[in-house]
Each structure stands twice: as structure tokens, then as C-alpha cells.
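dumping this here before i forget
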Amino acid sequence: MTIYDISEKAGVSIATVSRVLNGSDNVSPQTRQRVLDVIEACDYTPNVFARGLGLNSMNTIGILCADASDLYASSAIYYIEQELHKNNYTCLLCCTGYGLADKQKYLNLLVNQKVDSAILIGSTFISDNEAENEYIREAAKDIPLLLLNADYDCENVYCALCDDFKSTMQATNFIIGQGIEDILYLYNSNSYSALKKLSGYQSALTQKGLPLRTEYMQHFPENHANLTAIADFLSALDGTLKYDAVIAGDDNLAIGAMKFAQKKGLSIPNDLSIIGYNNSILSRCCEPELTTVDNCLETLCHHIVKTLIGILSDNEMPQKVIFSGELIKRGTTL
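structure:
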């Protein structure tokens, strides 16, 4: 049984059936009841595509992320889906990986499926190479795009992000304020967000008159969920670098640093202070609990959906909103 069968049995157009399914007022009471009677008699369950045919709206939002196993992405998906559900929207989730061709393929797929909009999670979808952002500009000609924690100036593209630069600078200043000058910065990505964090670390050192030493800015090349590999990576540096604190680009890296310290027999935070980023569940599942930057993810997701609902209701909405992160002090710092 399809929407076409319902329209034929009720003697109305497919668009009229779709309007009834969507609760539109643009249907007479008699016609509405006739369609509902057929739906009930046929035990018909509509799908989102059938509902959208008559209103030029699927009430469906595409969500793109590179890797749903990433704690940041999985939390964002949860918050966004919950907010969309409250507003009677369904979701189509695509996990694109990090390759440009797959990002393009999945975003084009969503556009062709006639979703109302798409939300892109993370700054990995925006490149410093402007030519690689062409797929964003093209998709934005058809549907509004919302970027979570990414910044891109383009018509019909809306951004909500945490001030990663300022947040990391404040975390670094906190460590410097404790009299610690030898600080290792650990990161694992060259995305827009990751480079903003690195720049915040560098700026804090420069403002305090401390040297910028490239060997103290270490890029971990593997999967940041591999905590043992992170600890082994730091162990390999142990003979050449001496530092009293680690500031990490996310909580996974910070937990890996904790594993390294424990393996070496260092006292945390007396021998080694550690700060993470994201205030994920990991920060509260370790001992001592992790000092970390709360990047306001739930607030960002709430704002993204609020902006989306406003756009789809033809309201003027801000194209970019920046939130400030907060350092959550726990047991890995003094």
C-alpha cells in the first residue's frame, strides 16, 4: 500500500493525501475525513518521503559527521537528534569519513533526497583550500547548511562554534599561572578547530614572553581513541623532552597522557599537570578526574537546531554565533 493507492481509493490527488498526513489546514474537513478513513481501513503507515510530496517539505534533516565513533560527534548527534525530534523532524545520518570525495558524495545524496536542510558536525568539512569547499557552496544553493563548530562565510550557510582559540589560550594561561613554563601541547588533527586550539596555546606562550618550541607541539598521527598508542607515543619522546604539563586537543589525548604518567610512575598533578578538551564523559571516568575545557557542545547543538527551525520558518537568523568555552578544574591540575 502506497500514497498513490490511498489517493486513488479516496478519489483525491497525491498532494491532498500528503497535506492530510502533514496536518495542513488547506484541506476541507470532509476531504480530510475521507482520506483518514481510507488510511485507517488500509492500515497504511506513511513514510517521510510520502508526507513531503504535497508541502515541498520532507520534515527531514540530514546530519553529516566524519566518524560517529568519535565522542564529540556521537554526543552532538544525540543532542541534535533529540532537539529535532522535539520539533517533529526526522533525521538521516551519514558518516562520511575524512576523504573529500566521500564528503561530497554524501552531501549530494542528501540534497538529492530532498531533505529540508543538512547539519555538518565538526570543522573537518571545511578546508583551507577554497576549491575543496565548492561542494558546500553548491549544496547551499539548494538547502540551508548548518555547520557545528566550523566557520565558513557563504550565503545560506550558518555557523555555531566554540571559541577554541580563546579557550585553549585561557587553559594555557592557567598552567603558566601555576609557575609551569615547560608545557607540551598534544594534538592529532589539522582541522580548523584543531589549528585554532594550537594557535591559542602559542598565543598564551608569546604573551607571557615564553619561547615557542616546535618540539613541544606534538602531532599524534594515529587514532586518538587508541589510548595505549598515545601513551607509547609520549614514552618515545621521554628521552628528549622535559615538561611539567600537557595540554591536549581533546580528552582522549589527555587520558593517553595520564596512562603515560601512570606507567612512568609520575604523580598527577604534582609531577605532571594535564588538561583535556571537550569535557566528555571520559573526563569523569578516570582517577583523578580530568581538568578539561567545556566547549559548550549541548548549547551549540541547541542553538543549531533553533537556528534551523527559524530558517525553515522564514525568519531572519544570525549566520554566525560564537560561544565561549569554560575551563573545568578537576584533579589533574593543582
